[in-house]
Design brief:
Two copies of one chain form a homodimer. By secondary structure, chain A is of the alpha+beta class. Chain A contains four helices and eleven strands; from the N terminus they run αααββββαβββββββ. In chain A, strand 1 and strand 2 form a beta hairpin. The first copy, chain A, binds a DNA duplex (30 and 30 nucleotides) through helix 3.
Chain lengths: ~200, ~200
Amino acid sequence: MMLTEREQTTLQFIVDFYAKSRKSPLLTEIAEGLGIQSKGVVHRYLSSLEEQGYIRRHQKHRGIELVDHPNYDELPLLGCIAAGKPIEAIENRELINFAHLLGGTNRYVLQVKGHSMIDEGIRSGDLVVIEQAKMARSNQIVVALIDNHEATLKRIKFPNRDTVRLIPANKNMQPKNYSADRVTIQGVLVGQVRMYT
Amino acid sequence: MMLTEREQTTLQFIVDFYAKSRKSPLLTEIAEGLGIQSKGVVHRYLSSLEEQGYIRRHQKHRGIELVDHPNYDELPLLGCIAAGKPIEAIENRELINFAHLLGGTNRYVLQVKGHSMIDEGIRSGDLVVIEQAKMARSNQIVVALIDNHEATLKRIKFPNRDTVRLIPANKNMQPKNYSADRVTIQGVLVGQVRMYT
DNA sequence: TTGAATGTTCTCTAGTTGTTCTCTATAATG
DNA sequence: CATTATAGAGAACAACTAGAGAACATTCAA
């Protein structure tokens, strides 16, 4: 379960290459991609990757097969999709990295119940990633504890030094002001995830 | 069975280093981080940490492995948050695993533009994870290509064998029927992610 | 079928990183 | 005062990583 630096870049190159072209690279293509002259070196990396279960090889042409590995934290960003327009292909196919969403040491997940953030696109059942924090900037969405027993997910503002304003994202609900000493911030919203089965 | 001061700071440094860069530090990096000149000293600390079960070492470079360290594909699910109610703590602290959202090799990300899925909680700017597929089940949300040049994200239904119905999630837009041969399915929505900075 | 392209297996080299020593210093303690 | 535990420097060596490239085997495509 330990990849060396070069083995990692090799694997990443294969993943990227496959994401872009839907086929496996040749040894020479990998070598070129890594700036290496010798395909023997590449072959050694591939052997190690195979031994560790990241790839399989059928000794054919473009025979490298990626094994599904739960450690990928990136996906290729293929483009934008707009209502009624074709997919704009993105030239330099970016990779979206989700690691930093998960990476923080003091983050946790809450499942949302109710519809107080519906206009923000946060629906009942969604997962929100919260970064533990005691402070927040105005306009951030926070987990706020009111009078030490009522926790809510709301957008926060500070109208003045002694007042905290918590704003739901739902037309049917009203913002409320609280004196600052009644509200404790428990965390700040850093992400929202929904999984469709 | 106690850690000395320096052993603790060493361990802390490794944890922090891993959290930031997702790889284990070199002895020299640890030495530098602790303000030590000699990697021999670091090695002694590591031996002690290993003996006491805090780390494992595979005598390679970057071979330090933290024992009992949270996987970075997972975050703890602390509970539910409802509008106006306290956080319901979940007893057996579940870990939410995002790996299977990212795991597939034939998945990619699109950034949404426009508001055709707004009632589904998918907003302009959101990232959607798409699994490449040519088929879909009724009621799934798919990337559909119409007449080979217009791609959209819509909920799909099959009213009858020859007809495909694409349904936007926006009250201001109307569902449309197409003859089946005009519509190509490019992928199925498997996830939606939004990151707040 | 045959030549070119590609994959496999080697040996060699260099540089980096990990391991094992010995030596010194300081503080706490009986 | 001697002893012990902690902390550090640094040298010598071993193990590992990285790369080059040659020779050979296999696969592909004309």
